[in-house]
């Protein structure tokens, strides 16, 4: 399967991504994790990305697109992958379509969660970029840059909406059901 997880920062995507990948035997591609690894490794990409991430902004599209393109071209991704945190902008979605060609995305799971719950959960996470002003900035950027992807994927008939306000287990069950509907429909 080729799966995209879409939803506001701090909605629990990362947790769901890990569980889903273990179950579906697909590669987990988290741009947040890849970027944090670049920052920790002090690579040129990491040096560029760090101040942007610390401010809650988006790393430039070309850098993130290169990262994802390289990752999904590796042999272990041939059997399927799950994109977590990508695409986050319309140009990123365009680049993904071009990169995948005929073997495009099969399902976009869209997590719905209100702002106050997002802030509450993110504050509980304790990551260095999880101060309240940065969280609010990430949310603003999400609404402006990423949310337009919802309409795009809905129009393409790929969107599966999941209520992210429940427990991790409830959201996991709903996610599994959403992916299973698509797997059945597309014959994998
Ligand atoms: P969250 O879990 O809060 O949604 P992520 O771990 O996905 O955050 O990403 C952390 C930071 O990495 C983002 O705030 C952003 O600065 C950067 N980032 C991650 N993915 C992308 C992307 N697709 N495009 C641009 N920047 C990204």
CATH level 1 name:
Alpha Beta
CATH superfamily heading: P-loop containing nucleotide triphosphate hydrolases
Total helices: the number is 9
Secondary structure: helix percent = 55-70%
Q: Globular, elongated, flat, extended or rod-shaped: what is the shape? A: globular
- Low-confidence segments, given as residue ranges, are none
- The structural domain count equals 1
Q: What's the SSE pattern? A: EHEHHHEHEHHHEH
Largest sheet: spatial strand order: 2-3-1-4-5
The total of beta strands comes to 5
Q: What is the CATH topology descriptor?
A: Rossmann fold
Task: State the end-to-end CA separation.
Answer: 6 Å
Q: Compounds present?
A: adenosine-5'-diphosphate
SSE-based structural type: alpha/beta
How would you describe what is shown here?
By secondary structure, this protein is an alpha/beta fold. The protein has a single domain, classed as P-loop containing nucleotide triphosphate hydrolases (Rossmann fold, 3-Layer(aba) Sandwich), CATH 3.40.50.300. Helices cover 59% and strands 13% of the residues. The protein contains nine helices and five strands. It has helices at 13-24, 31-41, 44-54, 61-72, 90-100, 115-125, 132-146, 148-155, 168-186; strands at 2-6, 27-30, 81-84, 107-112, 159-163. A five-stranded parallel beta sheet has the order 2-3-1-4-5, with helices on both faces. α1 (13-24) crosses α9 and α2 (31-41) packs across α3. The radius of gyration is 16 Å and the shape is globular. The mean pLDDT is 95. The site of adenosine-5'-diphosphate has 18 residues, from α2 and α3.
